[in-house]
Amino acid sequence: MATYKVTVATGDMVEAGTNNFISITLVGSYGESHQTTVPFLFQPGKEKNLSVHCGQDLGPIVLIRLHKWRLFLEDAWFCKDVRVTAPNGTLYRFPCYQWLEGVTTVEVREGSGKKLVDDKLQILKEHRSRELAARQEAYRWKNFAQGWPRCLNVDSILELDSNIQFSRIRATNFTGFLIFQGASHFLSGFLLRRTSWNSLDEMRTIFSRTQGRDIGGCLACCPLPFPRI
């Protein structure tokens, strides 16, 4: 009998925890464990500890499988990382840093950097192939217009996986920044201007109020069309 000590960490962002069921499977070079349920109720920024009992030594742990399922309501979970301590004391780290949504299974490789030629085990070669196919499916490109850079082949960011989209916090900050900048430009008379600028000095009186940015910075970040000079 071999016992592995496992620590599962949840991210510390808002709504990272979940009430859904999470279980884990350890995959080693000699075999894999049975699917073991992680203690219930995951809270943001907290860790869960459990023991995984195996009939034999699994050898070096090369990857883990995280299984998520639910009985009733969907509740996404953000896994930060998983740490596995083998019976001989060896610590294996599995950085995850992604959302698990719906009924799904996610495979996470051990955190040591490896190249394709380093994958000696067939299970690792198959995992790399599946990961590549999944990325090719997620990142499909199209031509928006002739001469323009290519863009993602989606009609809305809502079609993207949650791990590709902006985080809720970042999106909220970005929206708040746009509202603040829009209000500043409105109060300074910039947005309502219907005539051409008389000089660069006149423009500087407007842009000197925008957090110290120069004209070039404002021209680059502002999404609104500028009146011609």
Attribute tags:
single chain, 229 residues, alpha+beta, Lipoxygenase-1, 3 domains, elongated, disordered C terminus
CATH topology of the largest domain: Lipoxygenase-1
Mean pLDDT: 81
Helix content: 10-25%
CATH classification class of the largest domain: Mainly Beta
> Which H/E pattern describes the elements?
EEEEEEEEHEEHHH
Distance between the termini: 79 Å
Question: What is the H level of CATH, i.e. the homologous superfamily of the largest domain?
Answer: PLAT/LH2 domain
Taking pLDDT < 50 over at least 5 consecutive residues as the criterion, the unreliable ranges are 210-229
Total count of helical runs of at least 4 residues: 4
How many discrete domains? 3
Biggest sheet strand line-up: 4-1-6-7
DSSP strand tally? 10
Instruction: Note the beta-strand portion.
Output: 25-35%
The major beta sheet can be summarized as: 4 strands, antiparallel
What is this entry, summarized?
By secondary structure, the chain is α+β, with helices and mostly antiparallel strands. About 25% of the residues lie in helices and about 30% in strands.
What do these coordinates show?
The protein folds into three domains: about 1-110, PLAT/LH2 domain (Lipoxygenase-1, Sandwich), CATH 2.60.60; about 115-165, no CATH class; about 165-210, no CATH class. The strands form three sheets. A four-stranded antiparallel beta sheet has the order 4-1-6-7, with no helix packed on it. A four-stranded antiparallel beta sheet has the order 3-2-5-8, with no helix packed on it. It has about 230 residues and is an alpha+beta fold. The model is unreliable at about 210-229 (pLDDT under 50). It is about 25% helix and about 30% strand. The relative contact order is 0.11. The chain is built from four helices and ten strands, in the order ββββββββαββααα.
